[in-house]
Amino acid sequence: MIRDLGIVEPGTTLYIPFHTFDSNDPSASVTLTGLAVTDVEIYKDGSVTQRASDNGYALLDTDGIDFDALTGIHGLSINLADNSTAGFYAAGSQYWVVIASITVDAATVNFVLATFRIGQPNAIVNTTIATLSTQTSFTLTVGPAEDDALNGLWAIIHDVASAVQKTWVQILDYTGSTKTVTLVAGGTFTVAATDNISVMFPMPVQPTVMGRTLDVSTGGEAGLDWANIGSPTTAQNLSATNIDVDQVVASVSGAVGSVTGAVGSVTGAVGSVAAGGITASSIAADAIGASELAADAVTEIANAVWDTDATGRQTQGTFGQAIGDPVADTNTIYKAVVTDAAGANVAADVVAVKADTAAIKLKTDNLPADPADASDLAAAIAALNDLSAAEVTTEIEAALALARVEVSGVPAASASIVVKLGYLYMALRNKLEITLTAKTFSDDSGAAEWKKTLSDDGTTYSESEAAAP
């Protein structure tokens, strides 16, 4: 009877027992003779070529015969991590273990001892690395033909020559035409061609800290720790979320549609407040200042006091008296304010005073800002008209004395008289360098400031206009 060992992991050591019986009496166990590791042959994927090396085979209980002194019970082991025949043990392949040419009950017998496949149970693909470009990009020996067929899946890479060296990686991309796999990141050891690889189904979600559990409500929803959500400090869209009336919000920045209950402070616009929402007892002294009220808020408050017509808030409002016109209106705030001791309306006199004031303003627009200086204005004008020639000369010389900074650059055609004098002084005092083609003027340090190009054709000598050196 052939034993099928099923799928075994790469690098596994297989322990395979078997028994022998009397050919004349199948119920009678007999001891075989001549069993050696050279009698063990392994064939791969239906090929008639045996594994070239016997390394990795071992007989159990020293010689494999009569295991633990039990007649007819035998056993051997096969180490799949032995890579003496390079790449022979490969994930995705199927194997036969054959016992050849041993003697049982005086007869030479051959038989298939066991079959097995190498890989990971429940893998989508069990295969090997065919060619390797980098630690994160290589081709598979066997793989699906469709692009992206393996994207996002996990894989186990097992060293072909090790019982324990393996790593878990995730596939970022897959190209079906070339069977090229691209990994998210490399593994924990240096992989190579012929190493075994098993592509697995996606791994379940793993906690950041091992051993953590997930709370699930009776409705099946997962519990949420607000401090552990992605980007907790960025803006969150809670447009479909209501805050219970017994909850307190520390602060709100931005527009709030409606609020029921106490609000500590609000920065920004409030759309509307229901009747009774704000009462005298709910607003502390100085709670609302000018800086807390936007322009629209001030307008709305004013409209509650004064009705509005085409000329502004002139008509009498809910509880405010009309401002009115100071002359035409007889029942206005203006009338109430502009009356004499007997109560007579003096609005007309006020209008006359206003006209006189305008006339006075026209006459005083040119006076000094401080009225106290107005009496000195005439004296100041007379003093300006009485300056002597000597005083004028002194002022001019004082102004010229201020121009002590050396001029620089090319002389401009529209320069001031002071600047022009500066260029003449520069030409007389500073270094002057004349060649056959140019006359160069320098500043006090000897650096060239401007020049004049010279030419002489034997008839006419010419100097160009000043230019940059």
What labels would you give this structure?
Elongation Factor Tu (Ef-tu), domain 3; Immunoglobulin-like; single chain; 4-stranded mixed beta sheet; alpha+beta
Blueprint (SSEs and pairs):
Layout: E1 3-8, E2 13-19, E3 40-44, E4 57-59, E5 73-79, E6 94-104, E7 107-118, E8 125-134, E9 137-140, E10 154-158, E11 166-175, E12 180-183, E13 196-200, E14 252-253, E15 266-267, H1 295-305, H2 333-337, H3 347-364, H4 377-384, H5 389-401, H6 417-429, E16 432-434, E17 438-442, E18 448-456, E19 461-463
Parallel strand pairs: 1-7, 14-15
Antiparallel strand pairs: 2-5, 3-6, 4-5, 6-7, 8-9, 8-13, 9-12, 10-11, 10-13, 11-12, 16-17, 17-18, 18-19
Number of strands: 19
- Please tell me what the overall shape is: elongated
- Catalogue the unreliable spans: none
Q: Measured on Cα atoms, how large is the radius of gyration?
A: 54 Å
Helix content: 10-25%
SSE order: EEEEEEEEEEEEEEEHHHHHHEEEE
Structural class: alpha+beta
**Spatial gap, N to C terminus:** 110 Å
Beta-strand content: 15-25%
Question: Largest sheet, if any?
Answer: 6 strands, antiparallel, barrel
Mean pLDDT: 81
Task: Could you tell me the CATH topology label of one domain.
Answer: Immunoglobulin-like
Number of helices: 6
3D structure, described in words:
There is one protein chain. The chain is an alpha+beta fold. It has six helices and 19 strands. The chain has helices spanning 295-305, 333-337, 347-364, 377-384, 389-401, 417-429; strands at residues 3-8, 13-19, 40-44, 57-59, 73-79, 94-104, 107-118, 125-134, 137-140, 154-158, 166-175, 180-183, 196-200, 252-253, 266-267, 432-434, 438-442, 448-456, 461-463. The strands form five sheets. It has a six-stranded antiparallel barrel with strand order 8-9-12-11-10-13. The radius of gyration is 54 Å and the shape is elongated.
